[in-house]
Each structure stands twice: as C-alpha cells, then as structure tokens.
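Input chain follows. Return structure tokens only.
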Amino acid sequence: MVETVTAEQFTTGPARRKPESFEFVKFRIDAGVARLTLNRPDHNLLNEAMLREIADGIVFAGEHDEVKLIVIDSACKVFSGGIDIASTLPNAFIRCWTPSKPPSPECWKSASPSSAS
C-alpha cells in the first residue's frame, strides 16, 4: 500500500533513518566522500522509500564535517529507470494499460479517484 504524504511531512517527518537501516541505498563514507549507491535491481525504479533513503543519506552526510563530497551512483546497469509508476498510479490504471496500446477512456475513468466505489 502506498502512503501518501505532503512535502512537509516528507522533509520533516518522523526521525530520519540511519544508513544502516536503508533497504534500497547503500551508504558509506571514505576519505571525505559520502557515497550513496542506488540498489533496487533491475532498474533502480524510484519509489517513496528509496527517495526517503536518498534524502536521509544526504542529510546524514551533511551532518559530518569530514564529508566534502557526496556521490550518488548505481549498483545496477542503469543509474535509474525513473519513478516506479506502479507504486504511484492506481492499480486499475496499471491493469488496463500496456506499452503497445494507449489507455482507453474507460481505463482513465476506472483509475480516477472519483470513480472509486
């Protein structure tokens, strides 16, 4: 289930997670360089949890005076495939859309929040 949050909740929400508890981002500091490695195979699709980990990693690195550079890289073949639309669009829309055929008006209607029964 996707938890919807406001921009304020995203940036000032509950206590920030420490890098050792990250699920999708590997974090390390070495010789003044903080490295955040995106690790959500196969395409590093960005979901809310991964974006939070990136933000928390940057804040964590910024709290350490020895860090002079932050590098974000990828453990996958691609840096990132973009936003994970499956985690952001309604399931009804995902079920009726295919890359080879644009969604029908019925699909759009079934995916809209006002059509929920």
